[in-house]
Amino acid sequence: MADFDILGIDCGGTKVLAQSASFNSESDLVSPGEFHLEKNYSDHPNWNSNFFPVHLDLQRQEFAAGNICLTEPEMDQGDVIVETINSVISEIGSDIDLHLHLSPVIGENKRGVNKNIGLCFPGIKNKNGVVIMANGPRIPNLLERIPEIDSLYSDSDSCVLGEWKSSIGKMENAENAIYIGGGTGIADGVILNGKLIDFNERDEIKRSWELIMENGKTVESCLSPKGMIDQWNLSHSDKIERLDQLSQKENANPIFEKAAVAFSFLIQDRIRFFNTNHAKVEKIVIGQRLGAFISSSDNILKSFFESKTDIPIAISSDRRTAALGAAWKKICL
Predict the structure, then answer these.
(1) Does 3.40.50.300 match the CATH number of domain 172-315?
(2) Which H or E run contains 181?
(3) What are the residue boundaries of the structural domains of the chain, listed by start?
(4) Which residues of the chain fall below pLDDT 50?
C-alpha cells in the first residue's frame, strides 16, 4: 500500500475537529499533519445550550419499530450540527490541495464523495445516519446531508484507533487494553488479543451509558466531564462549564469520588470480559477532555482512579486522536 495523506474529522458532542494525517505503510501508523481546524457548535446562532435528548428508552423503541419521530428541538439542533460539519468541510475547501497531497488512486468516487476524508460521530448509527444518541439529537439522514462523506465511523472506535494506530497514541503495540475517553459522554474502547472489539457485535460487553450502577446512575453520567459538571450545576447556583472550575470548588470531592466509583465499576466490568476471554489487561488509557484535565491539573482525581486498580494507567491529553483514528480507518479498514 502506498503512502499518502488523508483528512480525519472528529464530530464530538460540542465541536467539529479536522486534522490532516500522513499514513506510513511500513509502520501501519498515521501521523498528524500541518492542517488543523476546529469549530464549536455553540458558535452557531441557533445552538441550544439547554437541549435535552429524547429518553433513551423511547429512542430504542422508535428505532426497533422503524419509526423514528424527531422532535422539533432535535431537528433544530441537528441542523446546527450538520451546518457546522458542512462549514468545516467547505472551509477546508481550497486548503485541501495546499495541505493534503491527495492520492489519485483514492481520488473521488462517481458520487463525488471525497474518499480521502474519514469522519467519526457519536451515537448508534445505521448506514444513513445517527439513530440513537445519548447526549444529542438523532440525525437519521446525516449522510444524505454531507455530500463529501460516504460513511460514518464510531467516535469511540476512532478514539481507540487514534491511540493505537497513530504516532502520538498511548496504546501503540498494545494487545489487551482498555480505553476511556471522557467528554460530553464516554468513548469506550477495548483491544482484545490485538483486535479492536466492536460493541455492536458483542452482547457480553456494554458501553458506559448502558452500564447501570447500584445507585441507579449510568457509568457515563458519573464519569464523563459533562456528567460531573451537570451534577454540580444541578445543585449549585454558581454554574460552571469546565472540570478545572469544578476542581477549584471546596465541596467538589463527592463528585470526584462518584467518578472514581464509576471508574471502578467500569474497570471491573471490563476485567470480567477479559477474564471470560482468557486474557489479562495490560493498561488503561484515559483520554479526551478527561485525560487533558487529569494531565494538566493538580487534583486528586487521578489518585482516586489509581486507588481503584493495580492496572497501569496512561493519560492521553492530545485532542487530535479521534480524527487521526478516523483517518486511519478510512485508509485501512
Answers:
(1) no
(2) strand 177-182
(3) 4-158+321-332, 172-315
(4) 1-2, 97-113
